[in-house]
Amino acid sequence: MNRLQKWFEAFVGICAAEQERLARAHAIFNAPAPDLSPLEKPACWRRSCAH
Questions:
Q1: Which distant-in-sequence residues (6+ apart) come within 8 Å of 49 by Cβ?
Q2: 28 within some domain
Q3: Range of the domain at 13
């Protein structure tokens, strides 16, 4: 019976780790993209004048 309990705990542990990995992947790849529109203007136009 103890062996069966150990197998069950190992199985549940693997499933929990897999769920955590999947949640991290969703958080990374479903995150909104950063706004890159300010970079469309050339850098020399974005800099302020240093007098």
A1: none
A2: yes
A3: 1-33
Integer Cα distance of 6 and 9 in angstroms: 5
Q: In tens digits, what is the pLDDT along the chain, a chain of 51 residues? A: 888 888 887 777 777 788 889 899 999 999 898 899 988 988 888 888 766
Q: Count of alpha carbons within 13 Å of 24, Cβ hemisphere only?
A: 6
pTM of the model: 0.45
Render the burial of 15-46: b for 16+ CB within 10 Å, e for the rest. eeeeeeeeeeeeeeeeeeeeeeeeeeeeeeee
